[in-house]
Design goal:
The chain has eight helices and ten strands. With about 260 residues, it is α/β, with parallel strands linked by helices. The chain starts with 10 loop residues before the first strand and ends in a 20-residue tail after the last helix.
């Protein structure tokens, strides 16, 4: 039997195979030490770092997050959080690549609205095309529109990351149909990014067939971040197993657990 921990059920990004389907953000924690503990508890193999908000070498005199994270077996994924134009995002991606010694990976965010933190999809598609031409491996943060996801894939995105709900809201996936439609139509990995508030939300994403989920606030703002990271680790594995198992059909009426034929009278 294949399990999420087995090599047979790994997923691939930029030529590397990953077993964990939980990506963890590194913002909003009380300390770098707490961040490191949560990362370890989550089992995540990819962690995101906001280049414009977290020191990963920009300031040699300030504490560096990378000094608190294991470099062996852990992929650092720079993101362009805080950018509001395609040009800003491209510049930030270039800085992240420089700080991480040429790593081509980038999680692309171009925010279009301060109230909802929804992405500017036009600027995101523009930045995706530019970064792909420059050799970046782009993971694009998008709204939950299947057509936008397809356009990002056509622009060269290596993964699409539709939101489940607004960033930091913890509301869970608000449009199950759209996420399922994106999964069914895109050939690249689909990762729910934003809106996950607790373990059950992550399980739902994996049950829908998503490749993985990215979680930050749900862990960092939990009463016990390390315990929540551990819970999410198990939820993702459970959701993936449920997807592989194939759920029973939903029915609008009752169906007896035991057959009526041959019953004792």
């Amino acid at each position: 039997m294949n399990t999420p921990a087995s090599p047979d059920d790994a997923w691939e990004l930029a030529g590397r195979r990953y077993r964990s389907r939980l990506l963890l953000g590194t913002g909003k924690y009380r300390s770098f030490e707490e961040t490191a503990e949560a990362v370890a508890a989550s089992g995540a193999e990819i962690v995101t770092v906001a280049v414009r908000r977290t020191n990963i070498g920009q300031d040699p005199k300030a504490p560096n997050l990378l000094d608190h994270l294991p470099r062996e077996g852990l992929t650092i994924l720079p993101n362009t959080a805080g950018c509001h134009t395609a040009a800003e995002a491209v510049r930030t991606a270039r800085l992240g690549r420089e700080l991480l010694e040429g790593s081509p990976l980038v999680k692309l965010e171009v925010i279009g609205d301060e109230r909802t933190l929804y992405p500017d999809v036009f600027a995101t598609l523009e930045a995706t095309a530019t970064l792909v031409r420059e050799g970046f491996v782009v993971m694009a943060y998008l709204n939950d529109d299947p057509l936008v996801a397809l356009r990002a894939e056509e622009a060269g995105a290596a993964a699409v990351m539709p939101l489940g709900a607004p960033i930091g809201s913890g509301l869970g996936i608000q449009n199950l149909y759209n996420i399922a439609e994106i999964v069914s139509r895109c050939r690249v990995p689909v990762l729910v990014d934003a809106g996950i508030g607790t373990a059950s939300h992550a399980a739902v994403a994996l049950e829908l067939g998503c490749t993985a989920v990215l979680v930050n606030t749900a862990v960092a703002h939990a009463r016990d971040p390390v315990r929540m990271a551990h819970a999410l680790r198990h939820a993702v594995e459970a959701g993936r197993l449920a997807y592989l198992a194939g759920r029973m059909p939903a029915r609008p009426h009752a169906s007896p657990s035991s057959p009526a034929a041959g019953r004792v009278t």
